[in-house]
Amino acid sequence: MKKYVLKRVGMSLLTLLIIVFVLFVLVRIMPGNPFPSERMSAEQIANKRAELGLDKPVLVQFWDYMTKLLQGNFGKGTSLYNGAPIKTVLKTAVSNSFRIGGLAILIGTAVGLLLGITAALNRGKFLDGFCTVFSIIGVCVPSYVFLIFLQYYFSYKIPVFPYFFDINRFAFSSILPSVSLSLFTMSTVARFTRNEMVEVMDSDYVRLAESKGIYGSRLVRRHVLRNALIPIVTVLAPLIVDLLTGALVVEKIYGINGIGKLMVDAIAGEGVDYNYVLALGILYSALYIGIMLVVDLLYGVLDPRIRVSARGD
Amino acid sequence: MEMLNEKAILEIRDLDITFRTNAGSIHAIRGVNLDLQKGETVAIVGESGSGKSVTMKAATGLLDSNGVVNRGQVLYRCREADGSEEVVDLLQMSKKELRRRINGRHIAMVFQDPMTSLDPTMQIGPQIMEGMLLRTKLSKAEARARAVELLELVGITDAEKRMKSYPHQLSGGMRQRVVIAIALSGDPDILICDEPTTALDVTIQAKILELIKDIQSRMGLSVIYITHDLGVVAKVADYVNVMYAGRIVEVGNVNEIFYEPQHPYTWGLLSAMPDLDTEDDRLYSIPGSPPNLLHEPPGDAFAPRNAFALKIDEKADPPLFKISDTHYAATWLLHPDAPKIELPPELKARLERARKEAERYL
Question: Which CATH superfamily is domain A91-258 in?
Answer without folding.
Answer: MetI-like (1.10.3720.10)
